[in-house]
Design brief:
The chain has 189 residues and is an all-alpha fold. The protein folds into 2 domains: 70 residues; 112 residues, no CATH class. The protein has 7 helices and no strands. α2 runs antiparallel to α3, α4 runs antiparallel to α6 and α6 packs antiparallel against α7. InterPro entries: YciB. Belongs to the YciB family. It is found in: Cell inner membrane.
Length: 189
């Protein structure tokens, strides 16, 4: 269910785009993002920072897309989001000495261990976490650049399909690489 809530704005954007147009799809993206943030607030008592960022960018760029009736603004959304994510990984690591990828991975692994009632705390070596942090930051910058390249060199239909399926595909492959990298540190059971 959380997967559906996480990707609901994107799913609705794609669906409405295919049946209506980019401007209606953009409006639905804004409303779905608002619903997503509201749902998270009322079910968890807090909203993840990334959802606030996605919502703000959707409102600003989506609002400009609708106001000026120009799809160029919404095309920049993914580029800005991924550039922010890449920058956050680099800045947190090299300015604040905090590896966000390590924090995220250990949080996920700890919650899995708790669900399986495994009391062993899973820790990942700094070297591997630093490599993964760099990998994800480079990937995010690459996706940011690739999105804007596709947006301006291909049709709107191609860009929407790339945004929905291409970016999810790239992220899935990166997750597989990450899982492969950390699997040797997971408990046997």
């Amino acid at each position: 269910m959380s997967f559906l809530i996480e990707y609901l704005p994107l799913i609705l954007f794609f669906t409405v785009y295919k049946f209506v147009d980019i401007f209606w799809a953009t409006g639905v993206l804004i409303v779905a993002s608002l619903i997503q943030v509201t749902h998270q607030y009322f079910t968890k008592g807090e909203v993840a920072k990334r959802h606030w960022i996605f919502l703000a960018i959707a409102i600003i760029l989506g609002g400009m897309t609708i106001l000026f009736h120009d799809e160029q603004f919404i095309k920049w959304k993914a580029t800005i989001v991924y550039a922010i994510l890449g920058s956050a990984l680099i800045v947190s690591k090299y300015l604040f000495n905090k590896n966000l990828v390590k924090t995220a991975l250990e949080g996920v692994l700890s919650s899995v261990a708790e669900k399986e009632q495994n009391q062993n705390k899973i820790t990942l070596p700094e070297k591997d976490c630093d490599q993964l942090n760099l990998f994800w930051s480079v990937l995010f910058f690459f996706i940011a650049a690739l999105n804007i390249y596709v947006a301006y060199n291909f049709s709107l239909d191609f860009w929407v399909n790339f945004k929905v399926f291409g970016l999810i595909g790239l992220t899935f492959v990166a997750l597989l690489f990450t899982m492969f990298k950390i699997q040797k540190y997971l408990p046997e059971d």
